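Q: Got a minute? One more chain.
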Amino acid sequence: MLKKLNFSSRITFILKCLLISYLLTTGLLLLLSLMLYRFGLSEKIVSICIIAIYIIVTFFAGFLAGKREGSRKFLWGLLMGGLYFIILIIVSLIVNHGMKDISGSFFTILMLCCGSGMLGGMIS
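A: Always. Here it is, folded:
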């Protein structure tokens, strides 16, 4: 019974971390869109900012997960970065109605999300 409760609380915590990270992503993307509207940023700067948002948010999620778990922090950070990326891809597939518009930087974004989540877990 104790193991089920522990497993259940871990799943709940992971879902809370993912929810917080996606709310933070939404806020930062809204801020970026305001800056785009206000200052007329170029497409290159917007792309760099979007990647930076992914890195910051997965770092934060990995940091939170590593802080709570205490052991194997890098694995928990890696898990958070990977789950963040998986949800990102699923939403992208739903919105784009298929694989045709998935960018060529698929594996780069995967490595950035997983790596920054793992780094956040290690630093915690």
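A: The CA atoms of residues 21 and 27 lie 10 Å apart.
Q: Perfect, thanks.
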